[in-house]
Each structure stands twice: as structure tokens, then as C-alpha cells.
Amino acid sequence: MTQRDYYEILGVPRSASPDDLKAAFRKLARQFHPDVNKEPDAEEKFKEINEAYAVLSDTDKRSAYDRFGHAGVKGAGGAQDFNVDFNDFADIFGDLFGFGGMGGRSSRRSRNMPRRGDDLQIALELTFEESVFGVEKEIEITRDEVCTTCSGSGAEPGTSPVRCATCNGSGEVRQVRQTILGSMVQVATCPTCRGQGETIATPCHSCQGRGLERKTRKKIVAIPGGVDTGNQIRLASEGQPGVNGGPGGNLYVLIQVKPHKFFRRREFDILMDLNVNIAQAALGAEVEIPTVDGPTKLKIPAGTQPGKVLTLRSKGIPHLRGNGRGDQKVIINVEVPSRLTTEQRELFEQLAKSLGSEVRPQERSFLDWLKETLGG
After folding, report:
1. Within a 13 Å sphere around the CA of 74, how many CA atoms are in the beta-carbon half?
2. With contact defined as beta carbons under 8 Å apart, do 221 and 253 qualify?
3. Per-residue pLDDT at 83
4. Domain boundary among 218, 235, 259
5. Which of 25, 59, 266, 312 is most buried, with most CB under 10 Å away?
6. Do both 254 and 333 map to the same domain?
């Protein structure tokens, strides 16, 4: 029977690098392993793939194969001639079946490594003024902390955790499986101690064996001026405690700003609508208006039209990063009276006669003009 070319079996060119060979081998081994692929010819293909990689991954055998073909590596098809790096199989079988390469020591090490605690998040509601100028707020943090009764051991004071009898303290149990490559060891987390390597005969009465207890603590947090709804303040290491001596997680304070009676925000500017009467708009006036800094005087020019925007410089929101503040934009709305006294009606009638009855078409709508003025 004619043997297939090893390069063809792995689907690589003759110039393939060792990394190319390994990548092709890993891909095909996963695809055709008999425990995964139930096709009738999967086992034969898997053996063929292993044979090809056993030759091409060995520098001397590959050189002989390149020069003389299959005759140069006669006997390489026997299992006793394979010289495949065990780590390649360990990676593949670990992915497929949970086998632990070299007895599962890497999984045990990773389980006992320090790990960072989980992050937490709480919401904090601010008034509009608090969001503008910043404020110190007291918050409550509810999280797990090391149990003060058992000092985190999980065992009742006076007792200690004991080595798990099921896994003998390794945190793992092993099962031997027979495969076409021989006996393989499958490593799994010990069901008795859940991978801890220890069991607790008498759990702590305070934490029920967890080693952690739920506590609520109060903390003062400084909120900078200029924050807005959706901004987050990060408090490092104020989240859940770390595992195996790892650092604590972070606490994120999510900002929510309550709506204001007069003000609304656009980036770092404060917008406010101001109603004036016809006389104030036509003749001009000086009025007192609210700002986040307190009441201030605003001059309304004579002949002010509806929708005109007047600007109060540096009366807006402080920039979070950098100096300066935005502006306060005052949008003028001219109120038309719906009810008039007799005297007011007579005066308006006189004004109407003096103004005449001519009307002029408007080239663009008031809303278009207002959007252009506000830049949005």
C-alpha cells in the first residue's frame, strides 16, 4: 500500500517551520481524536497524523525523510519510534478532556495562586449643584470581609481544617483512562473539599465555614466638581477581598444627577429658559435670574427676539480635567398675554395702529434658527 506524503497529511508545505508543524498537528489531532470524532476512519487518520508529526517534528528524521522519502525513516511508523513532545499531547488532551499535563500540577498551582477580588458598584445620587461644585458624601459599602471569629480559616475557634482524605490534600482526584496512545490520567477537582485540599469538621459559627462574613461599612468619598450622570468614581481595593492573599477588587461609584427646576446641562454649559413679557423684550430691561453661583443681574437688550440666547461667561460647569468653566446660556422666551385688562387692550390697540398691519413671510423657522444659535 502506498503511503501518503507526511507534509500532505499535515497540510503544510515542505518549507513549514516547527511552529507551523505544531499548529497543524494540534488542529488535526483535535479534529480526528477518536474520543471526539466518531467517524469510522477517525482512529486510522489520527494514527496517520501522529506518525507524520513524529517524523517531521524530529530534526534528524525530517532530514532523512526529505532526502529519501519513507525509505529514509523505515520503521518510524511504529509506536516505539515516536518521539513526540509530551507537552503537545498534554495541551491537546487537556483542552479536550481535562487531562492535567505532568500530573495536574499546573492546575493545582493556578488554583492556589493569589487572585484579585471582584469589583463592586453602587449608585450615588447628587443634586445639580453638588455635581457642579463637587461634594463629600458618606456612602455605605456592603462586602465580604475576613471573618473576625475564625480569622478566615472557616473553622470554629479551637479547631483547625484537616487534610482532605479523598485527595490527600492535593485538591484533585485522578482517573486513569485507556486510549490508543496508552494510559492517560484525567484530573478533576476533588468533590469532597472542592479543590481546597482541606475539609472543616466544625465550621465557624459566625461565617458557617466560609472564612468571610458580610459587613456594611461607611466611608466618605470626595466627588469632584463637573461630574455628570454616568460618570464613575473608582475607589481602589474597596471591593470584594482577594483570594489567597490577592489584592481586593475596586469599588465603582456610579453618579446620578437629579433634574433641576431651572437648569439643564449641555456638555459644560448650563442652559436656562427665561420668560419675559413683550414690553421687556421690546424696550429692554435688567432682571435678576438664578445661577449656580447665586442670583445675578442680566441685561436684556431692547428689541430682543424670541429664542435669542444671552451668555453669562464662566457661570457653567467646571472642566473635570483642566481649568475654567463653561458658560450659562439664557434662552429668551417672549410671553404673549392671554388675558388683558381694559386699559391694556386699549394700549395694545393703539400700538397695533402705529405698527400697521403689514405681514412678512419668514424665510426659516424659529426652531431652525434656535438650533443654529445653540449649535445643535
Report:
1. 3
2. yes
3. 44
4. 259
5. 25
6. no
| Whether 306 and 278 share a structural domain | yes
Phi-psi region of 312 (alpha: psi -120 to 50; beta: other; left: phi over 0): beta
What pLDDT digit, counting tens, does each position of 59-100 carry? 888 988 888 888 877 754 433 344 444 445 555 555 554 444
- Measured in residues, the chain has a length of 376
Same domain membership, residue 124 and residue 52: no
Q: What is the residue type of 110?
A: S
The verdict on residue 354 lying in a domain is yes
- Rounded Cα gap, residues 10 and 18, in angstroms: 12
From residue 92, alpha-carbon distances to 18, 19, 35, 40, 174 in Å are 17, 15, 12, 21, 18
Pair 72, 126 in one domain = no
C-alpha cell of 138? 458618606
Q: Structural domain of residue 74, as residue ranges?
A: 6-97
- What separation in angstroms does the CA of 124 have from each of 130, 238, 317, 336? 11, 16, 19, 42
- For residue 165, being part of any structural domain is answered with no
- Residue 138: pLDDT over 90: yes
Residue with cell 471582584: 118
User: For 11-38, what is each residue's pLDDT tens digit?
Assistant: 999 999 988 998 888 888 888 877 677 7
> Is residue 159 one of the residues assigned to a domain?
no
Cell numbers that stand for 166 in this block: 479523598
Tell me the CATH number at 343: 2.60.260.20
Counting the structural domains of the chain, the total is: 3
C-alpha cell at 164: 482532605
Residue 23 is part of a domain; what is its CATH number?
1.10.287.110
The predicted model scores a pTM of: 0.61
Residue-wise pLDDT tens digits, 255-296: 999 999 999 999 999 999 999 999 999 999 999 999 999 999
Instruction: Report the sign of the C-alpha dihedral through residues 68, 69, 71, 73, in that order.
Output: positive
How confident is the prediction for the chain on average, in pLDDT? 84
Instruction: Let me know: does 285 contact 276? Beta carbons within 8 Å.
Output: yes
Round to whole Å and give the CA distance between 29 and 349. 96
